[in-house]
C-alpha cells in the first residue's frame, strides 16, 4: 500500500500549494482584492472551438466553476478549486458530492449543486449558478452544446483533434489548470503522476510489450476501449501494447464496438473487463468471453462494477489513478505472469 500513501501525500501537498498560490495571486495580504487582480484574465487555454479567456474574479473566493465533463470536477479539486456545480458521471451521488469517494473529501464543507448524470444538460440550472467558467473538457465535443454553454460563461473544451470522450488525463488536467491560472500546479501534478505510473511500470518489467485489452460487456454487445481513453491508456503507460485486432477496429474515438462474430479480437496476453449492467460473475460466465484463451488461462481480470477499483479505473483522473495503481497493478502482475 505504500505507493498509494506516497502518491496521496503528493496530491494533498500539491493541492494545498495550488490553493495557496491561487489565493495569493487573487487577493491582497489583508484578504481584500488585490488591485491588479480585480480585472484582467485569470487564465487562457486553446480549445477545439478557439482560444478561451477566463476573466479574473475580484477575489479567489469569488471564482465559480461548473464542471460538466467526465472527471473535470476531480481535476479542478486536485488543483484546490471546488466547483459550485458538478455533473455526476458514473452514478456518483450526493453522498460523495458527485465525484469519486477518493476525491470527495477535497470539497471540505462545500456541497456543489448536482447537475444530473446521464440526461440532457439543464442550461437554466447551469446559468442559475452564475459560473465564471464552465469545464466540459472530456465530453462529446458537440458544437451546439458549446455554443449554448458559451452564452452562459467562458467554456473550456479539449484541444483541437481530440476525439469525443478521448481526452487523456494529462491533457485534461493541463487544459483545466491553464484555464484556472494554475498552469504551474497542473504541470507539477502531471509530472508527479507520470512518475508514479513510471515507477509502477519499472517495478513490473514483465508488462513491457505484452498485449492488453480493456474490454466491456453491455446488453448483448461487446467493446474495447482505445488509446485516448484512460481505461486503455493506463495499461499502455504501464508498458502494455494494444492488441492489433482491437486497434484495427477503430481510431479517433474512445471506444470500438466488437460484434459477436468478432469477439476473438478481445483475446490478448492480458484482459481487463469492465461489465456494464452485469455482475462480475455474469461476465465471467459469458460463453463467448469464456471461450477466449485469455479467460480460460486465468489472464483476464473481471472488475466488480460496484467496486472502488472499477469506478476509479473508469474515472481516469489524477485523483483516481493512485487507486488504480494500488489495486489493479497487483492483479495485472498476477495475470501477466501466467
From TrEMBL:
Signal peptide (residue range): 1-28
Main location per the UniProt record: other
Any matching Pfam family: Peripla_BP_2
Domain (Fe/B12 periplasmic-binding): residue spans on this chain: 64-336
One GO term (biological process): iron coordination entity transport
Assigned GO CC terms: outer membrane-bounded periplasmic space
Matches recorded under CDD domains: FhuD (cd01146)
InterPro entries registered for this protein in UniProt: ABC_transptr_periplasmic_BD, Bact_iron-sidero_bind
UniProt KW keywords: Signal, Transport
Location in or out of the cell: Cell envelope
PANTHER family: FERRIC ENTEROBACTIN-BINDING PERIPLASMIC PROTEIN FEPB (PTHR30532:SF24), IRON III DICITRATE-BINDING PERIPLASMIC PROTEIN (PTHR30532)
Family: Belongs to the bacterial solute-binding protein 8 family.
Identification of the protein by name: Fe/B12 periplasmic-binding domain-containing protein
Organism whose genome encodes this protein: Subtercola boreus
Amino acid at each position: 500500500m505504500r505507493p498509494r500513501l506516497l502518491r496521496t501525500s503528493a496530491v494533498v501537498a500539491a493541492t494545498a500549494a495550488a490553493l495557496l498560490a491561487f489565493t495569493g495571486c487573487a487577493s491582497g495580504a489583508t484578504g481584500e482584492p488585490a488591485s491588479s487582480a480585480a480585472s484582467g484574465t485569470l487564465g487562457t487555454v486553446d480549445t477545439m472551438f478557439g482560444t478561451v479567456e477566463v476573466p479574473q474574479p475580484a477575489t479567489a473566493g469569488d471564482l465559480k466553476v461548473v464542471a460538466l465533463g467526465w472527471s473535470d470536477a476531480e481535476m479542478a479539486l486536485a488543483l484546490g478549486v471546488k466547483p459550485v456545480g458538478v455533473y455526476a458521471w458514473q452514478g456518483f451521488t450526493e453522498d460523495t458530492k458527485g465525484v469519486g469517494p477518493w476525491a470527495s473529501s477535497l470539497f471540505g464543507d462545500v456541497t456543489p449543486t448536482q447537475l444530473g448524470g446521464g440526461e440532457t444538460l439543464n442550461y437554466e440550472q447551469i446559468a442559475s449558478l452564475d459560473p465564471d467558467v464552465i469545464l466540459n473538457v472530456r465530453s462529446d465535443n458537440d458544437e451546439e452544446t458549446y455554443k449554448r454553454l458559451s452564452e452562459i460563461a467562458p467554456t473550456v473544451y479539449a484541444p483541437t483533434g481530440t476525439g469525443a470522450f478521448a481526452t487523456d488525463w494529462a491533457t485534461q488536467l493541463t487544459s483545466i489548470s491553464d484555464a484556472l491560472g494554475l498552469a504551474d500546479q497542473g504541470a507539477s501534478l502531471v509530472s508527479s503522476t507520470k512518475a508514479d505510473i513510471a515507477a509502477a511500470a519499472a517495478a513490473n518489467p514483465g508488462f513491457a510489450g505484452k498485449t492488453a485489452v480493456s474490454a466491456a460487456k453491455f446488453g448483448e454487445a461487446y467493446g474495447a476501449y482505445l488509446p485516448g481513453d484512460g481505461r486503455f491508456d493506463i495499461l499502455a503507460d504501464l508498458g502494455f501494447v494494444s492488441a492489433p485486432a482491437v486497434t484495427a477496429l477503430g481510431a479517433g474515438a474512445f471506444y470500438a464496438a466488437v460484434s459477436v462474430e468478432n469477439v476473438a479480437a478481445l483475446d490478448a496476453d492480458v484482459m481487463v473487463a469492465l461489465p456494464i449492467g452485469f455482475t462480475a460473475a455474469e461476465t465471467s460466465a459469458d460463453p463467448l468471453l469464456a471461450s477466449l484463451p485469455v479467460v480460460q488461462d486465468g489472464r483476464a481480470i473481471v472488475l466488480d462494477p460496484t467496486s472502488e477499483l472499477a469506478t476509479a479505473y473508469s474515472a481516469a483522473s489524477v485523483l483516481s489513478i493512485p487507486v488504480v495503481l494500488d489495486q489493479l497493478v497487483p492483479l495485472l502482475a498476477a495475470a501477466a505472469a501466467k
